[in-house]
Structures are given as C-alpha cells and as structure tokens.
Amino acid sequence: MRIYPYLTFFIPGYYTLRTRHSSTKGVVRFILTYFLPIFLFLVWREYSIVNLLLGFLLVYVLYEVGYIENDCETIKKESNPTLRLKSTEYQLYEKHRISIYTGKIVAAVLIAALLYVRRVNLLICLFSFILIPSYLVYNRIRCKWNLVLHAWLMFVRYYAPILISLGVFFSKDAIAILFVYPVRVMIELSVKGKFGGYENIIVKRFLLHEYSNFQQYRFRYYSFTTLFMLLLLWMKIIDMPIFFIYFYYLMFTIFSMRLPN
After folding, report:
1. Of 174, 199, 172, whose CA–CA distance to 186 is shortest?
2. Number of Cβ atoms within 10 Å of the Cβ of 178
3. Between 20 and 30 A from 194 (CA), which of 118, 168, 212, 222?
4. Which DSSP symbol is given to 168?
C-alpha cells in the first residue's frame, strides 16, 4: 500500500487540511479566521511563541481524534453520511484504528509533557484534553445540545493555544473569545437545522430569519459587538487586544461580503 493514506491519519494537522480545508481558498480562510486573529490577539501581550505553536499542535492532534471518529465511526449510524475519505483510507482505518487513536493520544501526551517541562501550569497543559470527552458526546447525539457542544469545542480550539502561550487564565479573554466566534457560529447553526433538524424559533424570528442571510447577520453581529467593545475599552473595562480581535472580524466580514460568490 502506498504511504499517502497513512499520512492522512498519522501526520498531525494533515487530516484537518485533507478533510476540512482541502482547497487553497479553504486553507487561506482557515489561516485568516483562526491562526491570524489569535496571533494578532497575542501581539499586544507577553506570550511565548514556542508555547503558542505547541499549543496549536496539541489542540489539533486532539481535535483530529474527534474528526476521525466522526468521519469513520459516526457515519456508520447515518443513513446519508458525508464521506470525506477515499475507500483505501477507510480500509486503512478499519485495519489500524487502535494504532491511529493511540498514536494521536501519545503525541498529545508528549506535547503536553514538553509544555510542562517548559514551565506551563499542569492544569493548563491538560485543558485541551477536554476535547476528547466533549467530542465523544458530540459525535453520539443529534439534537439541540449539539449546538452548545459545538460552541464549546470551538471555544477550546480557539482559547487553548492562547491560554497555553500566556500561561495564565484571564476571564475577560475567555469571555471575549467565546463571543467573538463560537457564539456567533452557534447562532447561525441554530437556524440551519443541521443537528437533527432542530431550529431555534426565537433566533429565527429576531436574529437570523434564514441561514442564507448569514453574511448580513455576521455584519450586524460584528458591528454591534465591535461598538460594544469600543465602549468597554473607553470605560477601561477591557484592553486593546479584546477590542482589536472584534474589529478584525468586522473588517474580515466586510471584506468577505465584497468578494464574488
């Protein structure tokens, strides 16, 4: 068997790019909505770039456990599943599933150990591991609670690298990260009917009538939250990094709306 199918499962980060951001446009969007805003958020702070890179790696090694289980196990229970892999890759998974999951967990433990050696607090090193039980529950239900779990998974994905690189927990940072992206996406998905057909009537009535209008909704969301953060900045309740990340997403949304579909 060629080595290519093995790379999909065993190279950290490769599974994410292979199945979630396979096109050039997808990779660019991934960078602009994930890596870049986190870097810009931290530019104003004293942080460790090495710990940040290790944090990114740790998060995605663990996140891919959830991706793989969803793509290779959850689909077995679905009548019309989304197939993200080739048949040879599914065959490889069935043959080496224990090695695949073991390899991911061992890699995550080694990265966490390295962070601990670099004097990162043990609880902070272990925080990302909450992705595993969260994903196990997320992959086994299809109801309105998936919305909450989805927002929680995204929050950990965004905040864990920040927490690891700073080495200390700031409640204002955590709340800001929660609302700048996970909550916004949760609101969008609550009218899409993605999880068991669930749609939130209140959200549909007052915030987003149809999912197809998501661009206009994002513009309103970030316009309001950016102005609100500007007020909090003026009142000295928050600092510049928090305001700036909301401003960044507002500018990104405006730019995205001007691009052709």
Report:
1. 199
2. 18
3. 222
4. S
Q: In this structure, are residues 245 and 180 in contact, taking their beta carbons and an 8 Å threshold?
A: yes
pLDDT of residue 4: 60
Q: How many CB atoms lie within 10 A of CB 48?
A: 18
Q: What is the chain's alpha carbon radius of gyration, rounded to the nearest angstrom?
A: 19
Residue 88: predicted pLDDT: 85
Q: Quick check: 1 pLDDT over 60?
A: no
Write down the pLDDT at residue 185.
94
d(CA 2, CA 56): 29
d(CA 3, CA 11): 11
Mean pLDDT of 89-100: 90
What is the residue-wise DSSP string for 193-231? TTTTT---HHHHHHT-S-GGGHHHHHHHHHHHHHHHHHH
Cβ-Cβ contacts under 8 Å for 170 (sequence gap 6 or more): none
Q: Specify the amino acid at residue 15.
A: Y
Nearest in space to 159 (alpha carbons), one of 193, 185, 131: 131
Q: What length does the chain have? A: 261
Q: What are phi and psi of 35, to 5 degrees?
A: -65, -50
Q: What is the pLDDT of residues 103-156, one digit of tens each?
A: 999 999 999 999 999 999 999 999 999 999 999 999 988 888 999 999 999 999
Q: Are 117 and 165 in contact (CB under 8 A)?
A: no
Distance CA(175)–CA(220), nearest Å, equals 20
Tokens describing residue 217: 């909704």
User: For a pLDDT cut of 70, what percent of the chain falls above it?
Assistant: 97
